[in-house]
Amino acid sequence: MLGFKRFTVKKNERGLLLRNGDFERVLQPGRHWLTTALSDVRVETFSLEQSAFVHGLADYLMAKEPSVVEAEFVRVDLKETEVGLRYENGVLVELLAPTTRRLYWKGLHEVTVEVLDISDQAELPAALVARLTQTQMRQRPLLGVTGVLTVQVPEYGVGVLHVDGKVDSLLKPGSYGFWKFNRNVSVELVDLRLQVVEVSGQDILTKDKVGLRLNLSASWRYTDVLKAYTQLQKPAEHLYRELQFGLRSAVGTRTLDELLENKTVIDEVVMAHVKSRLVAYGIELETAGVKDIVLPGEMKTILAQVVEAEKAAQANVIRRREETAATRSLLNTAKVMEGNPVALRMKELETLERVAERIDKISVFGGLDQVLNGLVKLKA
User: Fold this and answer.
1) I want to staple 299 with a disulfide (CB 3.0 to 4.6 A). Which of 33, 281, 295, 356 is the partner?
2) Res 188 pLDDT > 60
């Protein structure tokens, strides 16, 4: 029995008429009366707000219905070395990866796709990089950006570009973008300013088997970044190891007494050792110096005792020297007084004066001359 069924497609929609599961045609906006006799009729509607046509019949339409595709869709069929820039109403909305095959509805949005060949080009054009990096004010996010590596190199540094595991080139300060499709791309930022490295907690035995713990600080910079990253996997780690080797060379070949007598010898040996080994790698060592030398607990006690004994011996020498000088002075004074009664008399008066300063009250009997004559009798 012949039957009819009404289907309505809105103005912002398109319909896909399926009869017994097979595609028949695309329905335009409006009311449609369709016969349903002896067949299963189904209409699937699609909102044109969503430009992408995501359906199991997309590949069939592209392969068998070219006229329908031409009339209703924008077709995208990218090769392995191509990427697509999809625009809606003149605005970039999506980056399409290689081998993308997709249909986009015509009618509501003006959809255009710009195809770029990236077979021999990893870097994005500068204008496109600016679009990708200035997305804060967009009303909708840009799709497909995971396929692009964006990097900004600061003014005080450079970027080392690695393509498929190899150092490709150096990037000057600025903004860059690179396609990640069909290649492995990475950028390592390198600071060209003077840098500081700390080599801490190094336990080293001296030549006389005394264990020391040392902390060293060094400053360095790159002189040729490309040379450094071409020859070394991690230049900073290589510098750290060389500083360790230089420190062990300086301490392990000297006794504790030698190190304590000349504390700058470690700095000099480390500088000489490391500088000669870094020239070929484009790295320059500016300064290197030991910050701390930590002795074992028992060695601290022994050294304290040694220092105490040395200071005590020095004090004894000074005391004996002063005593000898005082004795020599007394002897000279006695020799002068021995032949000079007047000088002796003056010394007696001086002594009496000192004694009187410490006595609060003196009682004299028989006169002052009797006291003086009783103290000292001068030879005629």
Assistant:
1) 295
2) yes
